């Protein structure tokens, strides 16, 4: 990837910065709370806004923080235009990937019980993520200009998480 290539992650950062701006710390917080639905390393959430600012898509402004100054990023006209041009492009097909899928695939090389232990251990994370999606649904009205879009995404996330939980039930029934 060249340093000026925009990736889906680039567009995610631009979209999350949105109308109101955001600091990298706030972007990390969105991921932690499950608002972003993407799992990137925290370092990427700090590096990508800087890169996008270097490309002229974001503008950084220093502001006081709790412990030190932070940079609040805002979309530039060029950044908004990049998002507008990208919106009608067909998205890539969704990824159906999970470490749990690999564990089930490899179960014939180990034991069903080991796979069941592993999958059962992921239930709390799935439940936490479902609770975050539910909280997102409840909080969507607090961002009126994005409410309907947030609701669409949170409802999808809820259905995907329900599918994962049902799949874990299925694996338990089959292997248990």
Q: What is the element layout, followed by pairings?
A:
Layout: H1 8-17, E1 22-23, H2 24-32, H3 42-54, E2 58-63, E3 70-75, H4 77-86, H5 99-105, H6 112-121, H7 123-139, H8 147-175
Antiparallel strand pairs: 1-3, 2-3
Outline of the structure:
The protein has 176 residues and is mainly alpha-helical. It contains eight helices and three strands; from the N terminus they run αβααββααααα.
Structural classification: mainly alpha
Major beta sheet, specifics? 3 strands, antiparallel
CATH class of the largest domain: Mainly Alpha
Average pLDDT for all residues: 92
Shape: elongated
Report the uncertain regions.
Answer: none
CATH-level-4 superfamily name of the largest domain: Winged helix-like DNA-binding domain superfamily/Winged helix DNA-binding domain
Q: Whole-number radius of gyration?
A: 19 Å
Q: What is the second-level CATH architecture of the largest domain?
A: Orthogonal Bundle
Number of helices: 8
Into which percentage range does the β-strand content fall? 5-15%
Which key features would you list for this structure?
176 residues, three-stranded antiparallel sheet, 3 strands, elongated
Walk me through this protein's architecture.
It is a single chain. This protein has 176 residues and is mainly alpha-helical. Helices cover 60% and strands 8% of the residues. It has two domains: 8-86, Arc Repressor Mutant, subunit A (Orthogonal Bundle), CATH 1.10.10; 99-175. The protein has helices spanning 8-17, 24-32, 42-54, 77-86, 99-105, 112-121, 123-139, 147-175; strands at 22-23, 58-63, 70-75. Helix 6 packs antiparallel against helix 8. The mean pLDDT is 92.
